[in-house]
Every structure is written in structure tokens, then in C-alpha cells.
Design brief:
47% of the residues are buried. This protein has one domain: Pectate Lyase C-like, CATH 2.160.20. By secondary structure, the chain is mainly β. Helix content is 9%, strand content 38%. This is Parallel beta helix pectate lyase-like protein. Keywords: Signal.
């Protein structure tokens, strides 16, 4: 009897968690089919939206297929059993395009939307959201939207081998674009629950012609200052409710022709952004190629950012940025070149009582042939270290190498600039310190044109070897094929890393 009961429970478990693969074919499919075989596929997105998917289930779209509308799948996976949206067959990736449509209660148009769901994998498809007619005031849009509200922690999202393109979102808000993870809360404070994401993995995705941002996330659980803890009162008089998302990894992606920022992480602890390529970001409005905002311990490494566009009146158009409300950002082994408004920004807005940017470390990066300036330090930033970087400059630097700037009435302080190499073949002015204080500039090397305002440099120990490295690096920066980041190749070349 006990053995029979055990067998019954086992069979019941197998039935409860049986995994189903659903197939969708826009040509041969029928919505009257059960969708459970390639020979009986669904046809439309509406059939998928009516399913309540279980852990381990998959929805596969036929390659070469095209669908229009909103994909709003239901259900959550569990640990070790993600729900998968993907492709089957041969040919081009299946394409889903919302065309600017949105559901009645949605605040923006999303081609694929998840709401308070977890353990999902979306892969091997092309996502578009192009509102026809090229409207001057397009609706807010996302290619993929993951929305969370008063749910606690949502776990495990994987996005791989996606092309997210032609999302003509609004340029009037930073909260729309290609892949958007957004955490909101109830209007009634008593109903609010601290909410975050734990585990977001983005790999080998291509973001092309997207407005306003390529990847972005946001959270209402964002208030803090430099020293307060959760539940304490911060300097602006508000309660610290900073509840960061964790285990964020974005790698091996390409961001091209992005209307604003290519990639921004917000309200995260230890986000890792590596081996990504950013080409021609901020083509329509002010923006830097990528940066952390309101994050702790962000790590940016082996990324390449180039040809970021300066539009008349812009305030940003650099390769990299350590933005405000950040602590202990590390930007290392990256390659920045040919950007219209400098290679790097470190900033914090002084008018915000609780704002800060503390402990940024910029090391072992290559900044080559930027325009206007090389680095801008702006606002109330503290304890910034710029060390062991290579700066290759031409006459395109028309203002100053290092630009210290007040923002919100506050100047940067305690900046250390050491052991860098300046390979200068153009600009005459090195520093614009303004009213900054407690800065340290020492043990830097200069080769090429001397600066008119600063001379405390060493000479290179082996100028011939440095000349060869610069020549080889420039040839990579001037290449025609921008398909993957070459940051690791050029930084290895420069520092002979193994």
C-alpha cells in the first residue's frame, strides 16, 4: 500500500510539472490547433497570450515568421526550470513587432511584456516596435518590458541572441527603449513592498536603431545618500528606501544607432557590464554610451565605445560615465575613441542635497582621438582615482584635456591622477581646475606636444615601443568592421597582458 501511494504521488508530481513545448507558425498555423506539435502549431500571438505557462514550458516561433501585436505570456518558471520563448526551424530569426500598439491599461507599448513574473528566458528572436507614420510625438515604447510591482524579489531572467531594433520610442523620457526593466509601486504607501530583481543575464544581443535607450532599468526604491541605511532619513529629508537589484550581468552585446544612452544600470549592487560594443549612441538627443547611476560597486570592463554623437546643445556625448549617486564604481580595461564630447565623465549634481559620487576608480583604459576634451569632472564628486590609463590626443581636443567643472554650484574634490600616459599630438591646454581642491597629479608620462599650462611629467622609458603600440591601436580604432568589442585586444596590446 505504501509503495502504491509513493508511485501515485510520483505520477501526480510528473503530471503537475510536465513540460510542454508550444509551436507558433504564421503561415501554416491555426488558432484552433493545440500548438503542441510542429504539425499542429498556433498561428497568432493571441493564442499564446491565452496560455498559462508552467515551469519548463517553451513557446517557439517559426523562423522566417512575422507577427504584429503584443506578446503578453502568462506564468512563471521556477529554479532550474525557466519558461522559454525562442525559435525553431531554419532561416532568419522570427520577428515580433508591436507597431506601437499597447493594451488598454498599459503605460507604454511593449512588444513582449512580463509583469510580476520570474524565471524566464527569451532568446533567438527579433523584437521590433515601430510606430508607423514617423510621428513627431511617438508613444512611449519598449521592445521588451519586465515590470515589477510590490512583489518582493523576482528571480532569474535570461536574454540571449536577441536583435532588438527599430523601436521609435519617445525622446522626451529616459524610461523607454529596447530592453526595459522597471520597478513601480502602488500609490497607497501601505500597500508598497520593497521590490527588486535578482539575476538578470543578457548575452550576445544586438540593439539597433532604438529610442531612447538600448538597455535601461529603473526603480522607485531609489532614495538614499552617501551614508544613510535603509529606513533612515537621508539628507534630503526622505526615508532611505534604496533596495537594489543584484546579479546583473550584461556582456557580448552590440549597441548601435541608439537615440540616447546605449546602456544605463540604475539602483543596482555590483552590476557587471563587459565585452560590449557601443557605436554611434546619442544620435538624436544628449546621452553617453553607457554608465551606472545610483549603483554600488559597478564594474565596467572590456567595453568599446566609439563615435558617440554630439547634437547642438547637448550636455553629454562621451564614451563612458560614472554618474551620480554611485559608490565605488570601477571602469577598467575599456577602449574609448572618436567620441564627440570626450571619453569619460565623472559627475554628481550639486543641487540635490543627497547626491554624491564617491570612490570611482578609472584604470587601465585607453582613450584615443576624442573630440573637445578627454575627461570631465563635474559637481560634488569625491575620492576619484584616474590611474594607469593611456590618453592619445590630436588637435580634435579643442578645449582642454582635463576639464573640472562646477555643477549645481559645487566643484569636484580629492581627485588623484597618477601613472597615466599622455601621448599628445595636438592640444595645448592640459587642465582647467577651476576652484577644485585637494587634487593630486603625479607620476604621469607625456610624449609629444608639451602643454602650455602644466609640465610636471616624466618621459617614456621606451618611446619607440610606445609609438608602435599607438600605431597598432589606432589601426584597430580606424577599422571598418565594428561587430565586437576590441577593448581586450587593445588593452592587452598596451600592457602586454596574458
Amino acid at each position: 500500500m505504501k509503495h502504491l501511494l509513493t508511485c501515485f504521488l510520483f505520477l501526480l508530481c510528473m503530471i503537475t510539472y510536465a513540460q510542454t513545448t508550444y509551436f507558433v507558425d504564421d503561415v501554416t498555423g491555426k488558432d484552433s490547433n493545440n500548438g503542441k506539435a510542429k504539425t499542429t502549431p498556433f498561428k497568432s500571438l493571441s493564442s499564446v497570450n491565452q496560455l498559462h505557462l508552467k515551469p519548463g514550458d517553451s513557446v517557439l516561433f517559426k523562423r522566417n515568421g512575422n507577427w504584429q501585436g503584443n506578446l503578453i505570456p502568462q506564468g512563471s518558471g521556477k529554479k532550474g526550470q525557466r519558461i522559454v520563448i525562442g525559435a525553431y526551424g531554419k532561416g532568419d530569426a522570427p520577428k515580433i513587432d508591436a507597431q506601437g500598439r499597447k493594451q488598454e491599461l498599459d503605460s507604454l507599448s511593449a512588444t513582449i511584456r512580463l509583469y510580476n513574473q520570474e524565471f524566464w528566458e527569451i532568446r533567438d528572436i527579433e523584437v521590433q516596435n515601430f510606430e508607423k507614420g514617423n510621428p513627431q510625438r511617438p508613444v512611449k515604447k519598449a521592445g521588451i518590458l519586465v515590470l515589477a510591482k510590490d512583489i518582493g524579489t523576482l528571480n532569474d531572467f535570461k536574454f540571449e541572441n536577441l536583435k532588438i531594433s527599430n523601436v521609435n520610442g519617445s525622446l522626451r523620457t529616459r524610461e523607454n527603449g529596447g530592453l526595459f526593466l522597471n520597478i513601480i509601486a502602488d500609490t497607497i504607501p501601505e500597500k508598497r513592498v520593497p521590490t527588486n530583481f535578482d539575476g538578470v543575464y543578457i548575452n550576445n544581443c544586438y540593439f539597433l536603431n532604438v529610442d531612447r535607450g538600448g538597455f535601461l532599468n529603473q526603480s522607485v526604491w531609489k532614495t538614499r545618500d552617501l551614508i544613510s541605511k535603509f529606513g533612515e532619513i537621508s539628507k534630503d529629508g526622505k526615508v532611505n528606501n534604496w533596495f537594489p537589484s543584484k546579479n546583473i550581468l550584461i556582456q557580448n552585446c552590440k549597441f548601435e544607432e541608439i537615440g540616447g544612452n546605449g546602456l544605463v544600470t540604475r539602483v543596482c549592487d555590483v552590476p557587471i557590464v563587459q565585452n560590449n560594443l557601443f557605436v554611434r549612441c546619442s544620435t538624436k538627443t544628449t546621452g553617453n554610451a553607457s554608465y551606472p547611476y545610483n549603483c554600488d560597486n559597478a564594474l565596467w570592463q572590456y567595453n568599446e565605445a566609439c563615435y558617440t554623437v554630439y547634437n547642438e546643445g547637448d550636455i553629454d556625448a562621451s564614451g563612458f560615465d560614472s554618474d551620480y549617486l554611485c559608490k565605488n564604481t570601477i571602469i577598467q580595461y575599456n577602449y574609448s575613441h572618436h567620441n564627440d564630447w570626450g571619453g569619460l565623465l565623472v559627475c554628481s549634481w550639486g543641487k540635490l542635497k543627497n547626491a554624491f559620487n564617491d570612490g570611482t576608480v578609472i584604470r587601465n583604459n585607453i582613450f584615443q582621438d576624442e573630440k573637445h576634451h578627454m575627461i570631465r569632472f563635474s559637481g560634488n564628486i569625491t575620492n576619484t582615482e584616474i590611474s594607469n590609463n593611456l590618453f592619445v590626443t590630436t588637435a580634435e581636443v579643442t578645449d582642454v584635456m582635463l576639464w573640472y567643472k562646477h555643477w549645481g554650484g559645487i566643484w569636484p574634490t580629492t581627485t588623484t591622477l597618477k601613472n597615466n600616459i599622455f601621448y599628445n599630438s595636438g592640444t595645448q591646454k592640459f587642465l582647467n581646475l577651476g576652484e577644485t581642491a585637494s587634487n593630486s597629479i603625479l607620476d604621469n608620462t607625456l610624449e609629444g606636444t608639451p602643454f602650455s599650462d602644466f609640465s610636471n611629467f616624466k618621459s617614456s622609458e621606451n618611446k619607440k615601443a610606445l609609438d608602435v603600440k599607438i600605431q597598432n591601436i589606432r589601426s584597430i580604432g580606424n577599422r571598418q568592421d565594428f561587430s565586437v568589442s576590441k577593448a581586450k585586444e587593445v588593452t592587452d596590446m598596451m600592457w602586454d597582458s596574458k
